[in-house]
Amino acid sequence: MKLWSKLLLSALLVCGSAHAEKPTDASLKELLVVTNSQQILKAVEAQVDGLMKNVLEQTTKDRPLNAESQKALDKFRDKVRIIHKEQFGWDKLEPLFIDIYSKSLTQEDVDGIIAFYKSPAGKSYVSKMPAMMQQSMASMQKLMGPMMEKIIQAGKELDEDMGKANKK
Fold it and tell me: Where does the DUF2059 domain lie (predicted)?
């Protein structure tokens, strides 16, 4: 009988832990607030714009642009910025984050994470995050230059190969 009692208790514990309490939308929204998610998103938008500007400069550095071409390039950059804001705006990302977090975290997880972000260490981390992201983006931009040069070269080789293939 003791064996059956232990098995039953074990089964109940497993079933109970499998149905851990889902976090509430309110707690998930609070988590997004204490992590400054919306402000970080705005900082990322600015950094993506800067990265795009650098990529466009890299791709056109070997071709002098006249005023008309520069205007067209600026118009393209503005369109991409608008598209990015439309597709990755807070109104689209907040529900996405809430859905992902609610599927991945329990209420206990969310409560613990919120407690951390409200702590001095958590507040310090959040306040330093924009600077760390900026440093990360600057480092990535340094990597992008050589990568873009290689991609441009590969594109030129593709043009040559396609030209040869079409002559056959």
Answer: 91-149
